[in-house]
Structures are given as C-alpha cells and as structure tokens.
C-alpha cells in the first residue's frame, strides 16, 4: 500500500492516461439469466409528466479546493465525459472524481452523519488515548477533517486513490494517495482507530483488507466499517422486481461481481466475517434502515431518507455511469433513461423503498 504525499500541483494539465483494461460487458443472455431487464426496456416505459416534489430537491452548492499531487496522479481516465482516478495500484473506483461528484460526496458526508445521529463513529473510543487515526477511502476528506477537529490531539491520515481533498485543513490532518487493496506499508501497531466508510464495489478481498487493518491497528485499538445493502426492499410490496428500484440491486450487484469488487457487503456479511477472520474481538454492529425518499411517517427516518436522496440526486449519473455503461454495456442514453425512472420511483411517496446500512466495529486484543 505505497502512498504518495501531497506536493505542488503541476503548472500545466497532463495528457489523459490510457484507460485501464475493463471487463467485457455482459451479453443480453447473461443479463437475462440474472433477471435483469434489458437496457432498452426503460426507454419503452413512459416517464409521464407527474412529479413528486418534497420541497427539498435543491440544496446550496458546496465548494472544495482540490489537493495538488505529482502530475502522474492527475492523469485521469475519462468515461463518457466523467473523470476517474489515474493509475494507482490496481484500483478501479466506480465513482467519478470530478467537481460534480465531489460536491455529491460532501452532501453524502452530511447524509451519513444524519444516519448516525450526528456521530462520526460508533466505536467506544477514549478521547484521551486516541493518538493516530486512519481513514481508508477518505473521498472528499470531510470525515477526516471533522474527526481531527473533534480529536485535536490525534494525527489523522486520510487515504484515497484520487487527490480531491481540500488543501486548507486542520494541522493534524494529512492526505495520501493509496490503494487499500495493496499491502499496507504503514507500521505495525500504529493506529488507535481505523475507519472505513462505504467501500462497497471497491475492495477485492475483504478478509485481506481486515488483515491489513489488524496488523496496523494498535493493541486495544478499534476498526470500524460502514457498508450498505445494494438492494432496495419494501415491507408492503411497493417495490416490484421489474421496477427501476427493484432492478438496482441486480445490475449493480452483478457489475461489482464482474469487476471482482463486490457490492454485496451487507448481504454477504463481509464486514463481520472479515473482522472475525482477522482476529478482532468484541465485534459489534448496528443495522440502520434508511428509507429512499421522505415517505416514512417517523420524522428521524424521513430525515435519513431525505438526505440520502439529496446525496444521490446530486450526481445520480455519476453513481451509475461506470457500472451500467462500462461493465453492463448499456449506452449512455439507456443509462440516463433508467436513472430517470429510478429517480421518479424514489420520489413517489407511494413507493416505500429502503435499504440497510451496517456499522460494524471490533477491537484488536491487547
């Protein structure tokens, strides 16, 4: 897990890097065998002109200043007009790293705080003893920055495959370019807390990930992982398998399988299994039901659904572009029509869809 520290930005933009080798798209027969409707299906379904406005479909723009690294890290790949990280290890992140998606990540950070009632973690940390912290897959870096503010005596390192973090940060924060799927080069027994959030579709081997975390965690330290189910459910049958939301888990799940980076982290219980296999003890987890939209009658649940919806809608195209276009072999137009159907469905208060979030944490024995 070799890392690259932040340095000065190059004076001129480098030439774009050649795209990495991609998995062959699924054939129509393969998609049919999975129960996935063909991409052409969505263009044949009328969207209609009915809209479902919850009164909070727009939100103020977020701004961020990108960090500057060596020119090779800025050799971004371009897929249908969206940019993705350059060559870092064997990383293959399915989320874009352009300005639009960074803004969506920042909304997503707040959405995750809402899920946890404003908490940055659920692990029982002793604030006086936390000296060094690692945030794996830090994204826009907001979690690392917030943690550093809350724990001013701790050194916080955020790692990611894209240099999209701000430069104005607390003095106890630094960001490094890392691929978490490579062997970690951090010293053994060096971190009091290791945080991982929403690495679904990113990790190639969850057991290996937690083995690396176990080795680099101090005795008595904690590791915490937040993951989500890939499928939308409903208790009243309002989410049908043939609906856009019913198909979401099928196509995205198969896309992750095709890349060798599973989205089924919750469904396959990969967090708890990986922690147990690595040797962590006192493993606990909390499952949180997150509505998609604001249909839920309970105020807190509706707020969770609202913020998650805002985060996804901030860049819905970015969330589906890589998997549906590059992996599943859909055309950009087919992907956009499908996304429009999905957005319409979760804004329809008659659809009571939700997914599950799991926060799992464990301690390294002393």
List keywords for this structure.
single chain; 366 residues; alpha/beta; Rossmann fold; 8-stranded mixed β-sheet; 10 helices; 10 strands; 17% strand; disordered N terminus; transferase; methyltransferase activity; S-adenosyl-L-methionine-dependent methyltransferase
Task: Give the gist of this structure.
The protein is of the alpha/beta class and 366 residues long. Helix content is 31%, strand content 17%. The longest helix has 17 residues, at 99-115.
Low-confidence stretches: 2-21, 55-72
Question: Which CATH C-level class is it?
Answer: Alpha Beta
Helix/strand-derived category reads alpha/beta
Annotated CATH homologous superfamily: Vaccinia Virus protein VP39
Distance between the termini: 25 Å
What is the CATH architecture term?
Answer: 3-Layer(aba) Sandwich
> Rg, please?
20 Å
Mean pLDDT rating? 83
Fraction of residues in β-strands: 15-25%
Number of helices: 10
CATH topology: Rossmann fold
Counting DSSP E segments of at least 2 residues, the number of strands comes to: 10
Taken from the alpha-carbon principal axes, the silhouette is: globular
Query: What is the H-and-E element order?
Result: EHHEEHEHEEEHEHHEHHHE
In what order do the strands lie side by side in the largest sheet? 1-6-5-4-7-8-10-9
Described by strand count, sense and barrel closure, the largest sheet is: 8 strands, mixed
